[in-house]
Amino acid sequence: MLMTREPLSPAEARAALDTLDETRARIAALGVCPPWRHAAFGVIMALLVGGTGFPLPIQTSAMALAFGLMAVVFVYDRRRYGVFINGYRKGATRPFTFALLGVMLGLLVLQIWLRDRHAADVVHLAIAAVAFAVGTTASVIWARLFRRDLERRV
Q1: What is the rounded distance in angstroms from the CA atom of residue 35 to the CA atom of residue 120?
Q2: pTM for this entry
């Protein structure tokens, strides 16, 4: 099929923009997640960060559980939305994702440092709770940024 460089009529251009707007709105709707989906991300972060503060068998179990939950979320997203959108996509979500990664790595380093100093289990659980709260809140904010990015007109 040969494409020509003939200019679009104003009506054709308007129709193309309307189609683009509708498509972007449908994709933006992917950012609307049920509350349990945000909490699931928080739990994954809590397991990955929190498990590190405990002995190896608990660390391993926490990591296996986190990866299993990641698989559940991935399958859910693919079934419900037809796609899985990662946090490293271009746009406003990317710097936010890197900031979240920095916070989680900081909590992870803190867990390891405290574990090496034999901190009480309750301290490790408190850090896991912080990771849960940060992860859940970040998931909500990330979804809002994602929707805002896609709802903006080109």
Answers
A1: 32
A2: 0.80
